[in-house]
Amino acid sequence: MAQVSLNNVSKFFPGNIQAIRDINLGIENKEFVVLVGPSGCGKSTTLRIIAGLEDASSGDVYIGDQRVNDVPPKDRNIAMVFQNYALYPHMSVYENMAFGLRLRKYPKAEIDSRVKEAAAVLGIEKLLHRKPRELSGGQRQRVAVGRAIVRKPLVFLFDEPLSNLDAKMRVQMRTEIKKLHIRLQTTMIYVTHDQTEALTMGDKIVVMRDGVIHQIADPIKLYDKPINKFVAGFIGSPPMNFIKGPIVKKEAKYYFNEGRFRVRIVDSMTKAIEPYADKEVIFGIRPEDIYDKLFVSEAPPDNTIKATCEVIEPMGSEAYLFLNTGKNPLVAKVGGHNKPTLNQDMDLVFDMSKVHFFDKDTENTIV
User: Fold this and answer.
1) Which residues of 246-285 are buried (b: 16+ CB within 10 A; e: fewer)?
2) Most exposed: 31, 134, 154, 270, by fewest CB within 10 Å?
3) Quick check: 340 pLDDT over 60?
């Protein structure tokens, strides 16, 4: 079994610089977990502590039932794939993949069997005789993954392995890594700053900032029910729109008042929003929950606002509209054939059942 757990793990660097603080994380056997967050949030440090490449300043790290704080990396039965492929340039693909097994003095026949099996899984059988300089970036990354596979570790660790690839190759390789997880049925921990990679790959996502875990959830829960404004803004592309304004009550109904527009809060949210009547909150709505009124039949007037379209970014099947209410900017994600007139007012409809409200001071989710 390859569960991984971190119990109250912290890491300080010289100068009393705290990289991570009181990390508690449990990863189940065969689970694909993604650590995601902006640069400097502590995700790679957390991964390196699991690998044994960094020592925890406090707390305990377990792989299976074994506490591994004092176990050297080579004895942890893990394999790590780095952002830099770190292939030996003078060796062939076969020799690169076999090198670690030779150091561990595996029999020649077993080395050959494992290398060819891994090459078949990754579709690189025809590349085994080539040198790294003769390979594309995607092929080199496959070799780096293959070098990890041949060891048959309990846990795979990936530290931003796709960062050096072009956009098309990143999409292809993240699919290949996900297929690999399904095929190998082993525990994988993956670090990235790219929220799209996190959403598409992870069974469970760990969102970090400033060395602290903010939320752990599956992709859908993370998208639908972010725990605070940071998570809401980090997950989703384009990011969620945020607007500050007061909650007002009129004739037993609650409204969010932006200043230039007012929208009614749905009844299912009123219990949570009642304590904030006449107080300023942060209103959040995702670009995909804003619609051009021309394409919405029977749009409620208290969900409809006016805004000026300043820029259109065509994306093929969809388009991003950069709008301004006269007080706040907004981004809407609409169909690719939706082309409003620039610098003219247009009517927009908010899906108020999908909006979010955050406390202005704590930035925690209200509803």
Assistant:
1) bbeeeeeebbbebeebebbbbeebbeebeebeeeebbbbb
2) 134
3) yes
pLDDT digits (tens, 9 = 90+) for 258-296: 999 999 999 999 999 999 999 999 999 999 999 999 988
Q: Give Cα 348 distance to the centre of its chain.
A: 30
Whole-angstrom Cα distance, residue 181 to residue 155? 11
Q: Which two tokens stand for residue 252?
A: 């037993």
Residues in the chain: 367
User: Rg of the Cα trace of the chain?
Assistant: 25
Query: How does residue 358 score in pLDDT terms, banded at 50, 70 and 90?
Result: very high
Q: Which residues contact 193 (CB under 8 A, 6 or more apart)?
A: 36, 37, 38, 39, 43, 160
- To which H or E segment does residue 18 belong? strand 17-27
Residue 90 has a CB neighbour count (10 Å cut-off) of 10
Distances in Å between the Cα of 68 and the Cα atoms of 56, 65, 75, 251, 268 are 11, 9, 9, 62, 48
Domain 4-234: which CATH class? alpha beta
Cβ count near 98 (within 10 Å): 22
Question: CB neighbours (10 Å) of residue 227?
Answer: 17
Least confident of 35-49, 111-125, 162-176: 162-176
Beta strand segments in 200-353, E: 204-209, 212-217, 241-250, 253-257, 262-264, 280-285, 290-292, 304-314, 318-324, 329-335, 345-350
Q: What does 160-212 look like in DSSP terms, one character per residue?
A: STTTTS-HHHHHHHHHHHHHHHHHH--EEEEEES-HHHHHHH-SEEEEEETTE
Domain chopping of the chain, boundaries: 4-234, 241-359
Tokens representing 233?
A: 């803004």
| CATH code, residues 241-359 | 2.40.50.140
